[in-house]
Amino acid sequence: MSDARIHVIHENDAWVVPLRTALEARGAPYVEWFLDQGVLDLAVAPPEGVFYNRMSASSHSRGHRYAPEYTAAVLAWLESHGRRVVNGSRALTLELSKVAQYRALAGHGIATPRTLAAVGREAVVEAGRRLPPPFITKHNRAGKGLGVRLFQNPDGLAAHVGSAAFEPSVDGITLVQEYIAAPFITRMEFVGGRFLYAVRVDTGAGFELCPADVCRVDDAPPPFTVVEGFDHPLIGPVERFLAANGIEIAGVEFLIDAHGRAFVYDVNTNTNYNAEAEAAAGIPGRGMAAIAGFLCHELGRATGGRVGCGDRVAA
To answer: What is the pTM of this model?
Structure first.
């Protein structure tokens, strides 16, 4: 038990840098598991500690095609041994499928945009003919705005799908979804299953709304603003949805239509924070500090208080 630590599961070094800083500031004993490829010995018991899953749906866009599948196997192994996993197997399932997200959200009375899931180019065109225009397409397994395009009519979609520019989702499922015009979206951040803060995101520059600092385009205006005193009726239902699905750390994005109706359209279980927005709001590093604090607390619980932050162990 003295070797217990926080194990950070991921496939993107750049996105982990702020978390490393936050963990090291607390003197947290931690190690990283870069799960792009490897060998999993099912006959061996996992190490002790707390395991934080940060696997991303967009991993294939960085050349890590089977990282989510490998992570699913690792999480099943960890959970079978009773290890404490933050954002476990169910969270990964929802990270990798917007269809699964939307159905789980609906079970808690949370509205999502009308969506058709299609496999095959002809089916994508047919889906577009079933929705009133305008509508958008997106990938079912996505992240980073993959596959998001706006179409004004079915003919435009048909032309796109028939061209070399059409990029199918890595899982073969393309979503055709009603377009809800909104000048901004709101992203609610949750740590430990509880609301932390919200940011308003300007959508004027496009659909790629990654908040991580490494996603910033040089000279682009900052699209993220922390909303002071944020409160919304969605907070309670979303917290219940997260609890029911074993999601403890997440960013949940919604928009409001012209009639004031709120629609959740994405749940990010591999959440990142925008340092510039936090600094402008006078809360620098708050998001990752909150995650580090939560992981330290869970490490103490998992070890009966015998190991906690400030107790360093060799990597």
So the answer is: 0.91
Fold of domain 5-95+292-302: Rossmann fold (3.40.50)
CB atoms under 10 Å from CB of 149, counted, come to 16
3-state secondary structure of 276: helix
The strand pairing partners of 201, in sequence order, are: 185, 224
Range 98-111+181-289 has CATH code 3.30.470.20: yes
Q: Is the peptide bond before 134 cis (omega within 30 degrees of 0)?
A: yes
**Per-residue pLDDT tens digits for 205-233:** 555 444 444 334 444 445 899 999 999 99
Closest Cα to residue 273, out of 192, 190, 207, 194? 190
Every domain of the chain with CATH number 3.30.1490.20 lies at 115-178
**Domain covering 115-178 in this structure, CATH number:** 3.30.1490.20
- pLDDT tens across 187-211, in order? 999 999 999 999 999 876 555 444 4
